[in-house]
Amino acid sequence: MTIDGYTVHPLSFPGGNIGKLAVCGTVNDLACRGAKPLYIALGVLAEEGFDEREFLGYLTDASTVCHRLGIRIVTGDTKVLPRGELDRLVLTTCGLGKTLPGRDLGISNLRPGDDLVLTGPVGLHGATIAALRYGLKSEGLASDCAPLWELVKKILPFPGLRAIRDCTRGGLATVLCEWAEGSRLGIEVDESSILVPDTVSSVCDLLGFDPFSLACEGCLIIGVAPGETEALLENLASSEEGRFASRIGSIIPAHPGWVSLLTRSGGRRVLDMPAGEILPRIC
Amino acid sequence: MNDSAYNRVLTASRALKELADRPLKFMEVCGTHTVSIYRSGLRTLFPSNVSLVSGPGCPVCVTAQDEIDTVVRLAGMEKVAIATYGDMIRVPGSSLSLAQARALGASIHVVLSAAGALDLARRLPDMTVIFAGVGFETTAPATAAVVLEANRYGQDNFLVLNFHKTVPVVLETLAMDPALALDGFLLPGHVSTILGLSPYAPLAAEYGLACVVAGFEPEQIMAGLVLLALQNREGHFSVQSAYPQAVRPEGNKRAKALLEAVFEPADAKWRGLGLLPGSGLKFRPPYSHFDARIRLGLVDFPAPEPAGCRCGDVLTGRIHPSECPLFGCPCTPEEPVGPCMVSSEGSCAAVYRYGRSEFR
Fold it and tell me: Which residues are CB-contacts of B200 (< 8 A; sequence separation ≥ 6)?
């Protein structure tokens, strides 16, 4: 079971909206534990006067994702708050899923030598929201917001599958740091193997953001036993959400708790978690 | 970075090793350089006798403590909205940061440009919108352009808290510092697109320092360092540009004309350096009614820097961030004590995020 609250400004963005995001986020949280999503409870907090048609549009997108995956929205609650007491709309989704017996996916499974596979480009969701928020035009930039259960279902049979996590808030950097800290092992990553779309790079260059710290909503990081990496990559490549999958690094015994990045310039540095609110720079 | 850029970095790294026949200490002036150097791990490719210290090129970092306090104080006033750049929001003031003031209900808006602040003033006609303008010759022309526009349209609810500073004077101050004993400046790319090359001439001619303007990609920075080492090897010092794509020798005439029209040189307070004559900008009389200090009769109350914080020494290259007793404990990007740990261009933040060198 999982629960998460969703607030995003603006509520609608290229590639999705708060309704789709609220369902995909919870589906992906369940999927990352190897659980087939079955039921969702939906809580709605809306500001008085919120446009009904807009609201129904978000709910329709949420239910479309559920319908596609055979998930039932079984209960819900709606509260309307006086105008000015809430920023338009907040959704909360609680998801219930079913894990396969004996299938445990978690940080404690990681072993030195395991490979790390990233299923898609980084930073698309975060850059899309940042571009909208700061009034930047970026043609072709869209959130990667997507449900990833189908992708996870395909790879669950791999016996060497150790851990899965979606790179949401805090991006790839946060997940890798949490894995290094949680497993008390080191992580080594090659920057040149991480796909950063040009559209994301442009927004990051302009605002001074680090693409590895920007949220993704349709991208997984997977820990896998080294002997199964190639087969896993082949399997992922056959699906829409996994077609850009690549091996980006590995778990190592050295520098436990830390992530080191081999940069595109051939240098080496620490990859750290972003701190606090990500704010644009000055010049 | 593509393969050819990767190869250029490696080639430059080898050239730097050959040229540096003695210990060389350069200062990268610009905060964007600092971040790029750490983010790309370039330091791990330097020969051991080449060292780089960070300079005063992070706009938020050099903003004096009492200036930060002034903007926080204004944020608490009725019918006032503050517009400023993102980096300013989390800088700790003596009592509060702007982010904390915002949490208490102050109206504080992050803008990407001075134009964004003027837009806000148009959208909030019942408020006084105060733009906390920080930055060097890069952001000051934009402030000047916006003030001209506000003047043209009589936008009386728009004021500027002018914290702008200029680069050449502070570099001369650092060039004179015997404790720093620099061998050259890696000069800022953005500022130089405005200024051109001539304002730096005294650094080479009078102080015998190598001066090279560089771009911000790792290979451009390495090319700049190679030229700095070459000038030292040959003992011939001049101002060179390794960034001809963006920097013209004469600079940006239009931006300079804007600066000249709206501002005149003034003394400015710098964190870590105090009051430096002629290192700032003030509004010329026809535009002084946009100066928040004048319009609101503001006085900056002297404010000590946070106890133990050595941002002033960090941003003048006197110490490495890790030599500050607060670095990492308690001062971190999550709980910053000084501005160098806050700003995305601050060298403490860059070292904390990218430079902890367990992997060298």
Answer: B168, B171, B185, B187, B192, B211, B239
Closest CA to A127 of A144, A107, A151, A146: A144
Pick from A265, A270, A281: which is nearest to B1 by CB?
A: A265
Q: How far is A275 from chain B (nearest CA, A)?
A: 5
Note whether B42 contacts A268, CB cutoff 8 Å.
no
| Residues A280, B352: C-beta atoms closer than 8 Å | no
Q: Which domains does chain A have, with CATH numbers?
A: 2-99 (3.30.1330.10), 107-270 (3.90.650.10)
Run of H or E including A146 = none
Of residues B1, B138, B333, nearest to A283 (C-beta): B138
**Confidence (pLDDT) at B360:** 37
Mind telling me how many Å the CA of B246 is from chain A's nearest CA? 15
Check B87 against A282: CB less than 8 A apart. Answer: yes
Q: Report the range of poorest mean pLDDT among A240-244, B23-27, B351-355.
A: B351-355
Give residue A281's pLDDT: 73
A163: its two tokens: 């851990």
Q: What pLDDT does B93 receive?
A: 95
The residue among A235, A117, A227, A244 whose CA lies nearest residue A176 is A117
Give the H/E segment covering residue B164.
Answer: none
Name the residue of chain A whose CA is nearest to B344's CA: A281
Indicate the CATH number of B61-166+251-295 among 3.40.50.1110, 3.50.50.60, 3.40.50.11740, 3.20.20.70: 3.40.50.11740
Domain ranges in chain B are 61-166+251-295, 311-355
Question: What are phi and psi for residue B101, nearest 5 degrees?
Answer: -65, -40
Tell me which chain B residues have a C-beta less than 8 angstroms from the C-beta of A267.
40-45, 218
Largest interatomic CA distance in chain A: 58
Q: The pTM is what?
A: 0.88
Which pLDDT value is given to residue B358? 46
ipTM above 0.85 for this complex: no
